[in-house]
Here is the input.
Amino acid sequence: MTPAWLLLLALLARADAGAPGGGIEARVSAAAEEDEDYWYFDIYRPFFAEKAGPDGAPLMTAQRRRAHSRDFAKAKPAGTLRVFVIGGSVAAEWTVTRVEGAPQGRGRAAATLEEIFSGLFPGRKVEVINCGMGSYDSYRESLVLEEILGYDPDLVIRLNANNDTAPAAGPPRLKGLAALKLRRLIGRRTWSAAGGEGPAARRRADGGLQERTLRAMARSAGKRGVPFVLCTYPYRLGLPPAAPLPLGDARFAAAWSSFGRGDYRAAAEGFRLYAASRPDDPLGPIFAGRALERLGDKAGARSSYRAVAALDAACNDMIRRLAREEGAILADIEAAFEAAAPGARNDGQLFDDVHWYRYCDPLASVTAAGAVARDARRSLPAALSREADAAWVERRAAGWAGLAGRSQAPDKGLFWDRALLAVWESLLDGPGFSERSVALFEGLIGDFPDESAGLDRRRRDFVQAVRENVWTRSRSGHPERRWSAGLGCLGEAYRRAGRHVDAKRCFTEALRLDPSAVGTLVGLALTHAALGEKDAARARLALLREPAASFSLVRHYRGVIAPGEGGKAGAPGRAAPEAPCVVGQGGFWAREAQSAVRRGDLKAASSLLRTAQGCGSGAADKRLMAGLLLEVGDPAAARRVLESASRQAMPDAGCAVDLAEFARRTGQRRTGLRLLELAEGAGPSEGDRARIASAYRDFGAYERALRRSEELVAQSPDQPGLRVGLAHALALKGDREKAKAELARAQALGLDANGLRQAAQAWRALGDPGGLRGALARLREAAPDDAGVLVESAELERALGDARGAIALLDRAAGLAPTDEQLHRIGLLYGELGEPGRCAQTLAGLAGRHPEVAVYWSDKGVCEFASGAADGAVADLEKAIELDGALWPAHLTLGAIYAGRERYGDALRVYDRALSAGSRGGRPDLRESIRKARAELLEKGGRGGRP
Here is the structure.
């Protein structure tokens, strides 16, 4: 029986095909529709369409977006050699046909694939049709192949790079296609416009999709008697990943220092040692290769570079093996490029990972033609085999290899494309520079010194280019953040090249845009030092006091920036409140405090937040500060920061909703509701309106929540998340049947993991154990390897009273390498589920890895006390109180142990110390418990006891 959703897809496809030129297109974003059509719908439409030629004979013309336009006769003329090229962007950019001004004729240097094949088959009229399409993977190519095999080809050449590793590679999900069609039909935002992934294929666990598809393609061509050419592709050797230098590792730091001093032999050995200890980090072999290059060891450097290109090398090895096994022709373009490269690296041939400069096209073409010539007797029909002039190709192969191996004049038309790529690769989550971006900028300023000098003034051009580029516009994210990060990497490239004036200009502009960038601050301090501006260098260094000094980047360069001050870094996590800062750097300190909170170090977080409040910052950073101040038990400061952010950001709807959330956490219900009303009047987006409805639920304003949810669903009935929100509001209002109906509709539309989490909350509000367990089961199926999901599920199972099921989920989560935060929660849940021994065992690992975090010792001690290991509990609780004297749970438990052992004096001292020290976390219930325990001891003393 045909599934209902498949019938819906067919009906919508027919409706779309019959629509006039306006209709759907007038109601959705044209750019988003073009992107989605290109990736999901065009692939199932014919690549070529038939039209009448000048003489009335039928011609085939490409009708697909971004395809090469070359017409060819539907019926192949006699004496014609018809060659099709398929693949991704590497194939699409290959110059395969004659362009204006290119040399022609068999006796002259051939410039295109078509001309080289004309020399190989001098008795034939050669026509090469390029069907290469940017971003196509092997699945999409296979659909093109099936079509072109019907156009009487004599040869098909397949060339692609690494598109099969993209998340959307492979057959799109039909349910996703149906949903996208439905969204368009009713005029809703499409997936690209909404920032979603659309009907992307689900990734295959076995990773063998590409090989299976290529094998099927080779066999399909073989059944039709069409020779099939499989090409390996060249990949750029020595290009680093988008990652910072691992200067926190002593071996790498020592090698990097040797490299900077020019001691390349020591550097190469140091980088080798680092690579042996960290085989997962490609920076070791890459910089070992650079050191070997400086020593003149081309073979050793190339071997080092090749060691880190495992993915590309494995793909090319698979292509070679498959060609042997399936009897396809192998054109080993990778080997040809590597042989032609004059040095260890081939960055003179490729400007990114896999795309080569156009002057290398003839080398690729002659390699493909030479492979066909060598394999002619086995693979070609007898007539073509007799006509092939293999000697002609061989005579020209050396010349083209030599041309591709020589340094060529850089193509100025590629300047902005290369700059865009370098900036795009610059953004990192942590401090330091993206080494990939720095390397790309090093090549750019070497090829275009004048153009690069003015790049820091072209911010507006970059942002516009990102938003207009078909490959970046749907995932641009924060182009302004990328721009500031890119300028920092450009400045670092200038600094390493010794162009300190240019570096200073780029670093200064980057810091103006993002004053909290640690790597850029270090780079500017180093630049000041190199220019002899010692006072300026020290001033920049002053901005990087603890905890920034704990960063390896700062520690490594401290002695260079300010000689004589190296090694003065204090203990990590200790920040002086008087530490100077520049305007806007409060966000940096707030994010450091957030990291401290996540690892449970509330003492360090509190100190960092004091510094953050003294620095200028935007409303978004202040919202973060307010939430963190609540975490560390300082609600008064949180309220002050919250009010400051409110004055600074109104009437921004998203900000107002964030502030309302913080107001709820501080118990300011009236303020929170007022903020939500302000948000509603500030033109909120659909996403903000959904958050407003959710916030009303959290505040207990169920009537408002229900009204807003109903409005949202009426406007966007196909949004499953909105229907879940409506179901939750209905459940809280007590309308059980309507709530269950909305949950069923949401499930039918398809819920992602986040939607399933919300659905679980709605089922919990309904008090329906069966529905809740079903939602949890689907959630675990949607995210089977997510430790956080399993911990969350365990918490819900515990709330339902299923201790055994919760423990089983915790066991699975613990085996999935959870984060420290998740592991901490796992340990606590073990304790809450009556497994104090497992709680203590879990927390022991955390405390061993992070001995400076007091809360781990405290919670471990509580679990040990509950399991009967009182001696171990005393030691751990004393350790926790030594690290942080304001942890009330530690005092309460330790006092109970002393009281149980009739050490009443010790117990009273513990309680008195706790009440005088205050608390982390604002737990008045614990304070009251400590007071009661102390009073009971005193009362016992009054009745003749021994307090």
